[in-house]
């Protein structure tokens, strides 16, 4: 079905950048395990979705569209405002690399999870995080 510019614009404005479904799923599982963290903190470079500040562990929950999962294939599917969206997503991907590099250079452990993986197996993703937290004690 064809959407108008206004409909597309409205849909894009509805996309959350905090407290998304994937973040909530993962945070709930971590909280259940007794792991305490900061959420969406601006005190850490790159504003990780979940941060264990004392342990220097940053966790990012990346949605497939905004962070370019399977990008070479997916960018072919963009139909409207192609130049804008391709540049935007590719800049997001570049920023993810810059954030990873900077945090790692500063001694942080960076963990990134695709939204589809969080939805499919939240427990497994939380296991990875819990292992990193326990190993840093």
Give me a quick take on this structure.
With 137 residues, this protein is α+β, with helices and mostly antiparallel strands. Helix content is 53%, strand content 12%. The protein has one domain: Endonuclease, Chain A (3-Layer(aba) Sandwich), CATH 3.40.960.
Task: Provide structural commentary.
By secondary structure, the chain is of the alpha+beta class. It has a single domain (18-135), classed as VSR Endonuclease (Endonuclease, Chain A, 3-Layer(aba) Sandwich), CATH 3.40.960. Helix content is 53%, strand content 12%. The protein is built from 7 helices and 4 strands, in the order H-H-E-E-E-H-H-H-E-H-H. It has helices spanning 5-13, 21-32, 64-67, 71-74, 82-105, 115-120, 122-135; strands at residues 38-39, 50-52, 57-62, 109-114. Strands 1-2-3-4 form a 4-stranded mixed sheet, with helices on both faces. A hairpin with a 4-residue loop joins strand 2 and strand 3. Helix 2 crosses helix 7 (122-135). The chain is globular, with a radius of gyration of 16 Å. The chain starts with a helix and ends with a helix. The mean pLDDT is 91.
Question: Can you lay out the helices and strands and say which pair or pack?
Answer:
Layout: H1 5-13, H2 21-32, E1 38-39, E2 50-52, E3 57-62, H3 64-67, H4 71-74, H5 82-105, E4 109-114, H6 115-120, H7 122-135
Parallel strand pairs: 3-4
Antiparallel strand pairs: 1-2, 2-3
Helix pairs in contact: 2-7
């Amino acid at each position: 079905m064809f959407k108008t510019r206004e409909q597309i614009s409205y849909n894009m404005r509805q996309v959350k950048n905090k407290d998304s479904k994937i973040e909530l799923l993962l945070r709930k599982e971590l909280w259940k395990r007794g792991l305490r963290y900061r959420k969406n903190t601006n005190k850490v470079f790159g504003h990780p979705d979940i941060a264990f500040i004392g342990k220097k562990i940053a966790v990012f929950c990346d949605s497939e569209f905004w962070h370019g999962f399977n990008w070479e294939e997916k960018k072919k599917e963009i139909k409207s405002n192609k130049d804008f969206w391709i540049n935007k997503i590719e800049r997001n991907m570049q920023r993810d690399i810059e954030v990873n590099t900077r945090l790692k250079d500063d001694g942080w452990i960076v963990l990134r999870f695709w939204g589809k993986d969080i939805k499919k197996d939240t427990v497994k993703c939380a296991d990875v995080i819990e292992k990193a937290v326990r190993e840093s004690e």
